[in-house]
Amino acid sequence: MTDQQQLDLRKDAVEAGTTTGLASPSVDVTQERQNSLWSDAWGDLRRNPFFWIGAVLGLVFLLMALVPQVFARGADPRACDLGNSRGLPSADHWFGFDTQGCDYLANVVYGARNSLIIGVIAVLVILLLGVVVGAVAGYYGGLTDGILARLADIFYALPLILGALVLLRVGPSTGIPVINSRGPGAVAIALALFGWMTAMRLVRSQVIAVKSSDYVAAARAMGASSRRILVRHILPNAVAPVLVYATITIGVIIAAEATLTYLGVGLQRPAISWGLQIEAGQDSIRTAPHLVLFPSLILTMTVMAFVMMGDALRDALDPRQRA
Amino acid sequence: MGRYVARRLLLTIPVLLGASFLIFAMVYALPGDPIRALGGDRPLSPAVIAELRERFHLNDPLYVQYWEYVKGLFQGDLGTDFRGRPVLDTIERTLPVTVKLALVAIVFEAVIGLVAGVLAGIRRNSFFDNLVLVSTTLVVSIPILVLAFFAQLLFGLRLQWFPIAGTNEGLYSYLLPGLVLASGSLAYVARLTRTSLAENLRADYVRTARAKGLPNRTVIVRHTLRNSLIPVVTYIGADIGTLLGGAIVTETVFNLPGIGREVFNSIRSQEGAVVVGIVTLMVFFFIFFNLVVDVLYAVLDPRIRYD
Fold this sequence. Notes:
heterodimer; A: 323 residues; mainly alpha; MetI-like fold; 14 helices; 0% strand; globular; B: 307 residues; 2 domains; 13 helices; 76% helix; flat
């Protein structure tokens, strides 16, 4: 039920004379209470310009990944003519041409798909690892918690880029299925493997916070199993902070992917990726700066979309901010 | 407090060993045969290869190799690279560059971040406050890689204010990379200061101070700022370790010969001993500064007591 519907309901009740409009139990209190966090958050979000900018940018980026040909204005990223090498932007070719003489707009637009795939896969794996490990550590406590928390500390002490860099450098010579593929899957898994700790800590602290509450004790008294208590009663509390974290992390992962690819261990040619474009463009940064400029710009706007949406979500979901 | 520090120090040992073992195990699987590559065009004789493999413990199982490494570590020996140069020398050569870079970054972070945060915090919803909000969102979203290139393009090539690579101009050549490295944390410091200050300005003791008739300046500087800076100071402290470890991209793009660029080059050229040595050092810094900050927290905020 949206805010508007609730207001309407209240107005109807007042006009029908069944209520005074002051706080009274006939105004469907249970419904309101059930919806409060999310409907209040939506009310906040709707009025936040940052959220709308982020959402529109994110939508454009999503469409770019789904139907790149529309945004590429019909140009084929692989149809190249060396005669156009490093051509400057023009009315026909908005982003100019790269060193091979390929239409640059098409190349930049087609790069969105790999970034999105890696961002989404990595975050899904991070959530899976974080929720499972965090829930187990928080719920069972004791030695289990001690070992898992220490494990998270170990990974936490390694910089994300550094860990993924080493793993991806080693990856192709190992026999591990996805890791040795040099594809988007390998990059996503490597980033997730060194980036799951914050999600784990979020879930763990939420689980510990509500574990000893009355309603969990009630569920246990009614004979609910540990698994059911975790999944049905405890984990839903962690949804809000995890959602905020996941949104921002998609942006962080996309930036990290571009960096790893730029450093030469991420995606490899002939894949189309913003990291590869920046890497290729840096040699001609003096003569053709547009080759670095355009992929950087689109990359930044993409990351910004997720950071803005995440920030807005955090503000909306944080009850302390509400007067 | 003493017992707390001792307990925390003990807890760092498994983390340090775990992290270095993790990297060690991955580096162990590095592709190619570095010994064969040493010979270059003229292949080494089998006897020499066997001797070298024996000397670098390349034939032993992983845990034996790691045990040898840890034994050396406790004696201050980080091993040698495949050309026989001690890893410790490489670190001694490259670490000062990274430390200078990190210091410059911390100064930027503290000065610009604090000033922007304080000005935004005391005038919530003013034009300047919104400017800080928008610009920090922007800065946080720009990947370091992109920021480095834009800084090089604008300040290096267009305006020619700063050199874009190397360390030839002394401390001056650290300014631009330092600013780039600091950017993300700088934005965070500004936001943290702003929120913390705005929150404290609503506190009862601030109302009391105003009611006593203290001038606005004294209320903010002497009463509010002191309390608001606690989380900021601790954040900056913990950030030193992060910056030392996060300098890989900045040093590579700006071609600074620090530990970040060194570890990246070593990963590429399969110099396992150098990679493990530098990463262990980075992890140590990270853990150390986090511990310092936790202790500092109790010193700055009398409400917090360990034990």
